[in-house]
């Protein structure tokens, strides 16, 4: 793969290619034009004289603009005598040595292009636009109306006595995104259902619906409840398809709550999936049932981001034959009121991000504040968890910046120093040894960690600085491992990659900060286990890494980025690309089973578990078909607009 680095100003342009031939063109009248062609084994630029008339140098958008009254003549001789990527990077940066020593802002767009970010655009969400957001649903009149509707819905829960109808109502409330208002009522109903023998029935729909909702809420319900629906060969009875497509759909959704060794649910998934796909071929008529089936076949409910699901289901529920207008109006109004809360949180985050000055000073990094906030809504949409969303949004912004520094901008030597500074958490060492942009990152990170720790000390009387610092140190060490792989051209074994990859995806950092900022999540007796990360964090982090790889490996392969799990497995096994992707998907399926088991038996708080699962679902949504986080395409923009900015019309 060709690698091209470009340094350009009004005097000269240098193009250095790492393969076959190198041309150096100097098209300025002040510097004689010349073209030098050199074999790939040796690249030499000799006695190139560049006139630099400036006291301030800025390299931005592939252009070095030099403007000042002071004149300095700099004669640079660069000898590049190796074809290794690491040496080429080092020698190229000699050309920037003068600018760096004078603390000028350095932007390196060609390096961004080389690592796959060359077509990045500035954030489409301007500060002024975010600050201008205002929602009428903040008004007291809407909040009072919601309270009236809320009480009507509460009465529905009390009045429904049939356990099947109770389960159906809970299911609808969850899908509409309003079940969080009725946690106590729902728990009381599910406690009663769990203690009843409702599974002594031959109705597949009822059994599957009850199993799914009870497992979702942490009840110890066995997959043996499906034994009745098996024939002697332990396969599902073929005639079950005649009992109603709703029962098959319910079974399909329930099957995704399986854990390892529950082969009956593996069989249920294959069986129900086959029947649903055949049904869609014959009945894809846009009906309510048809819409539900297509939606589930794309992603099951267990894999969907709750807030996105609420938006989709609110619009779809209007087509239901059993539409309850009170439920629909309540869901729409609640969605808009909660959205108004998100807007205020986003405005607050926008002011914080502007105060850090990181987007302006470190322009090599992705400016994705709104997208980073969007992730936190996906992690946990509960309107009462604003402190959590603010903290994790800041984590996301800092992770983006540091990640891009390791991937795009830092020399290997500087990255090693930065990693040491973070590992030691030594501010003096960092300020004495790091270049300007790394000092900015380190100080911003230090300030943030202290801010979160101070709030935790106030609220929980627990000193959490060591836990937070360790999570960031583990992340930076993982980034540095990948940087060394990249610079040396090393492709690790599949096992090596996974061991480092579950950390370099950064999920563990988000989870640690979520744990300390969610209400009532922190339990002092769990703190020791956090140091090495509970299985729930490790498993979901690895799952997120593999999803990310599947979504980004093609672009990264084309740009010569650090190897992904796909390439590592291909090297290890000799598999084709398609076979490697299939192997990764099979690992993901196994991981999801183990995640289900951990979620079911974990002593972690339910809100924290929901947040962990929320991030896992967000990764699926954002990376399964590409990289909606990095590249601001229309679909990513539409998702943000619909969840955070545009209210749902209240009239049908």
TrEMBL record:
UniProt superkingdom: Eukaryota
UniProt entry keywords in alphabetical sequence: Lyase, Magnesium, Metal-binding
Residue intervals of the Terpene synthase metal-binding domain: 355-593
Cofactors demanded by this protein: Mg(2+)
One Gene Ontology MF term: terpene synthase activity
One Pfam family from the record: Terpene_synth
Gene3D superfamilies per the UniProt record, alphabetical: Farnesyl Diphosphate Synthase (1.10.600.10), Terpene synthase, N-terminal domain (1.50.10.130)
Biological processes, Gene Ontology terms: diterpenoid biosynthetic process; response to herbivore; response to wounding
Ranges for domain Terpene synthase N-terminal: 124-285
Protein name as catalogued: Uncharacterized protein
Organism in which the protein naturally occurs: Arachis hypogaea
